[in-house]
Amino acid sequence: MLYHLSNKIVKAYLAQRFKRIERIRHHSPELQQKVLQDLIRHAKDTEWGKENNLHKLSKAKEISDQLPISNYESIKPYIDRMLHGEANVLTSGVTKYFAKSAGTTSGKSKYLPINKKMLHRNLIASSWESMATVYDRRPTAQSFQHKNLILGGSLEPYSDYQQSTVGDVSAIMLHTMPGAGRPFYCPDFETALMPDWEEKIELIAQKASKANIVMIAGVPTWNLVLFQRILEITGKNNLLELWPNLRTYMHGGVGFEPYRAQFRELLPTDDFDYMEIYNASEGYFSIQDTEKDGMLLLTDHGVYYEFVHINEIDHESPSILRLDQVEENEKYAMLISTFAGLWRYMIGDTVQFVSTNPYRIKVIGRTQHYINVFGEEVMIGNTDQAIAETCLITEAIVKEYTVGPIYMTEPGKGGHQWLIEFDVEPKCMSEFETILDRKLQDINSDYEAKRYKDMALRQLKIDSLPNGSFHNWLKSKGKISAQVKVPRLSNTRNYVNDLLSFVE
Questions:
Q1: Which residue range(s) make up the domain with 416?
Q2: Is 138 in the same domain as 194?
Q3: How far apart are CA 162 and CA 84, in angstroms?
């Protein structure tokens, strides 16, 4: 009875919060100007702000003309000082939390500052807006009456300065979760923040199998590992047999299309909400506010956005666009300025606007993760969609995949090599290859042009890997956490060769 009442009270509160979503839908350019002014006021007296004369700037054009585009390497010296407790460097005061970005499977970790202002104005506020959207889409939701299963990472003191805390952004959000949400979270916080990933998966599986779960959230890759273990423990055929009230899955971090068929097997019902969010180590940027394609850009949550057309990413002086200058269906690299001290920071993701009224985006890839060896310009969004459509036709189910180039072995002949781990293999692999290649041509005209009569590219080639290959490969590199993602595409054969060597 008490939890039923709490759900009713929180539902009323979330209805009020949803008005902020409505405001974002209709007034994003104006909200962005206000965010920019707030960011300048917050940072003008920091060391970085003084070095860049931030107090003299007030307009978006001044920011664009006078502040440099930054990346992690350019601000790493500042962040290193913040990690060691120095105050007023990139942001005012001392920063306690740093989101540990996993990077690539072989790359070193990055540490992104998460100060109090960023925590409350962006991460926590965006989480509340996400829950408001859950209840708007499903008024009968019971997230504040039963349990929500959220698979997060871990936290630990920074090795060189114990007062600083580093870890996955998901773990920082769990650790700082408002008290109102804690009774409705599964598992307990001690288990949730455990550093040993495999032990944590086992304990969460044991605890969650005994709970009444109504919503799940997390990266699909690791959720599937957890769900498989839960079904083994309980002997159930699917998740709805165990959790009949489960109705929402909030996902992000990787494209969902390659996993959709697997989730359809786990959740065999049409009465279910799949909700995508865009929550990165650098901040919480967008949520899927309707059932339509695309996520609403959160323009009132402490982040100021700018965009570089994908064709100009490598230009020395690219044209920088404000939000009100972007166009639908164009592809952009995203720059962010935040309360955490990131200014005009190139986050590394490429997005496409599916709508500019309101501003809705989809993440289509990484600025460094694509294949363009032969001028084909294939992005992750292309391969995710092609895989999903091919699986629908062939009734195959793909667990994981990565793609690398096959360099030209004779004049004018190159190709793509796909390493795929199937949950359900296609009846005929050559047919799967042909359909996948055709679908990729339908989606990407550049790839289609290079495939014309096999003149530049041969048909793609697939190698089917044994079950568990990707998981064990990541584990062998110590890359097991909520933030680690399988690298989908690469302009080199590094991932493909390394994975093939591991499997052999």
A1: 380-503
A2: yes
A3: 9
- Cα–Cα distance between 48 and 60 in angstroms, integer? 18
Q: In angstroms, rounded to a whole number, what is the distance separating the alpha carbons of residues 228 and 223?
A: 9
DSSP codes of every residue in 82-103? HHTT--SSSSSS---EEEEE--
**pLDDT over 70 at 144, yes or no:** yes
Q: Are residues 430 and 454 in the same domain?
A: yes
My answer on whether 105 and 229 are in the same domain is yes
Are 72 and 140 a contacting pair, CB within 8 Å? no
Q: Is the whole-model pTM more than 0.85?
A: no
Predicted confidence (pLDDT) at residue 195 exceeds the cutoff of 80:
yes
142-146, 174-178, 320-324, 423-427: which range is least confident on average? 174-178
Domain count, the chain: 2
Cα–Cα nearest to 306, from 471, 69, 38, 22: 69
The CATH number for 29's domain is: 3.40.50.12780
**Nearest-angstrom CA–CA distance, 314 and 316:** 6
CA distance 303 to 117: 11
Calculate the average pLDDT of the chain.
Answer: 89
Boundary residue ending a domain (319, 334, 366): 366
Whether 98 and 187 map to the same domain: the answer is yes
Q: What angle do CA 364, 369, 370 make, to 5 degrees?
A: 75
Span 24-49, pLDDT tens digits:
999 999 999 999 999 999 999 999 99
